[in-house]
Amino acid sequence: MRKDSRLSRVLHVLIHLDAFEHPVTSDTLAKMLNTNPVVVRRTMALLRERGYVKSTKGHSGGWSLAKRLDEISLLDIHEALSESSVFAIGLTDEHNECPIEHAVNRTLKDAMNEAEALLLKRFGEIPLSELTVEFKAALANK
């Protein structure tokens, strides 16, 4: 099963953007992420729509933060990127008439909903600035 690593990758980009003193191009971000600049532009556009980043056109243009990292939570970024559950686990619907399938699905759904609510609550409590603490400490020790 393939993992959705967009949240992790975008958080990585946002921490880098905070460290840069100038806008960063989609090409540069794409090289950092080992992906295509078009993917970067599409993803960053989702964040721009929410007001977390901004883009500037022209020779010295690129992406930069529109808000400070302490004003953005993990939940904010998760919601900007995804409309789906945080879990890749799915329920089956191949045997709609089977009472066992109904019981299994109900139990799994309840447990996953509880776990997702707890995780999203925690995401809302973590500002992105918290992610820079370890990064800044490592830089200071060099």
Automatic annotation (TrEMBL):
Cite the InterPro entries for this sequence.
Answer: Tscrpt_reg_Rrf2, WH-like_DNA-bd_sf, WH_DNA-bd_sf
Instruction: Provide the transmembrane region boundaries.
Output: none
- The domain of life for this entry's organism is Bacteria
GO terms, molecular function: DNA-binding transcription factor activity
What Pfam families would the database entry show?
A: Rrf2
PROSITE patterns assigned to the protein according to its UniProt record, in alphabetical order: HTH_RRF2_2
Looking up SUPFAM superfamilies in the UniProt record yields: Winged helix' DNA-binding domain (SSF46785)
State the GO CC annotations.
Answer: cytosol
Record protein name field: HTH-type transcriptional regulator YwnA
Q: Which organism is it from?
A: Marinomonas gallaica
